[in-house]
Amino acid sequence: MTSAAPLKVLSVASEAFPLVKTGGLADVVGALPGALSPHGVATTTLIPGYPLVGRAVKGARVVHRWTDLMGVEARLLSARLGTHPLLVLDAPALFARAGGLYGADDDWHRFAALSRAAADVADAMRFDLLHAHDWQAAMAPAYLRYRAAGSRPIPSVMTVHNIAFQGQFDAEVFAELDLPDAAYGIDGVEYYGGVGFLKAGLQSADAITTVSPTYAAEIREGRFGMGLEGLIETRRDHVQGIVNGIDPAVWNPDSDPALPTRYTARALGRRKLNKRGVEAMFGLDRGDGPIFTVISRLTWQKGMDVLVRCLDELVMLGGRLALLGSGDAHLEAAFLAAAARHPGRIGVTIGYDEPLSHLLQGGADAILIPSRFEPCGLTQLYGLAYGCVPIVARTGGLADTVIDANEAALAAGVATGFQHGETDYHTLAHAIRRAIAAYARPDLWCTIQRNGMRADFSWAQSGRRYADLYKSLTGTA
């Protein structure tokens, strides 16, 4: 910790682990305060007051009230996210409702209010910098940018966790956003004749980060930029990729309470008891052959349509599959049909279960991640930490974090998994065959497992890079 007063950063997001989570965004937002603290950064996290969050912070102190926050009453509650400060936007008209976090007709209103509140809080509570995550918080840098002339300058960082999700809305909502008319333009919030929340954040922020270096380069191309590649290209000098980390306090096979048997890289034999647990939970035949796992949204982006086509071959080669996930109805049905076609060889659980995901990482032999694009990915990092060997597409953060078991990497003793090229049947099936061949050589397989487990994917290095960025923007470097 530096001797100077810590830099005060407001981190704004739509979810944060362990309070509320739909995906990796929550893990990152929840881990950042701890990652930044050793580098002289004091992070306060601001999230919406969903019912689950409200119950967790019941009795929290009210530190501010809005009588008219974009047309609704709201309170700001002060609580804790682990050992770090947490602010909760308690706006019942917007967030106190059943169902999923996203997909409501008034999402523009809900998350514009979150962003507007963030800008108000950053100013009133004298934060040094605002860090916005994904489209749900992306209007915050825009609200800072279009404040009244003479306002205290507050720099902002916009992090893109997945550029495919952009928060695009009809032009009619602009009149309700409490922004000056000048903000509706190509260099403001206007996007293809409507309002683009992520576009506004990318245009307005002082710096843009993505969650891996490769993804930062990829989104400058049409195939990955999802219509925003031109903007990213014009702001390329403000863009950098900082790979996500994982929290070893949560993801550690030597201390994980979700595992029947804990283990280390030096005691990999203990994993077999966890493998028996996976077999029991997913109705798989007991055996010594490899168990592949999938822990994923079942979507086109994740390459799940291609994986379905490879399952018959995977089983024919002696593999088994344990899948945990949900998503597109036709893909859920296809995996369930494969399980019915191969009883005892394929087990499928539709939904998400955090402890079960830990068991799969600690008991399955390999994890399949054939994504067509993947900004960073966390499941491959969990797999590396747990000796669950990743089989991944060569894209985004997957390419940055997994070292392919090619001849050169094997000879050098550095391989940590298997990569394949563009996601299609032939490349994925070939990667599965390579993995099964390596699994048949126990000493080689253990070496690959241990290499991954010894790699450092904690937040230490990434936390320092974020802190350095913050300090450069605030002139405190």
CATH architecture group name of the largest domain: 3-Layer(aba) Sandwich
Which structural class do you get from the secondary structure elements?
alpha/beta
Rg measurement, Å: 23 Å
What is the total tally of β strands?
Answer: 18
Percentage of β-strand residues: 15-25%
Overall pLDDT: 96
User: Which sequence of strands runs across the widest sheet?
Assistant: 3-4-5-2-1-6-7-11-12
The gross shape turns out to be globular
What distance separates the N and C termini?
A: 14 Å
Q: Largest beta sheet, briefly?
A: 9 strands, mixed
Helix content: 25-40%
Family: Belongs to the glycosyltransferase 1 family. Bacterial/plant glycogen synthase subfamily.
Protein name: Glycogen synthase
Keywords: Glycogen biosynthesis, Glycosyltransferase, Transferase
EC number: 2.4.1.21
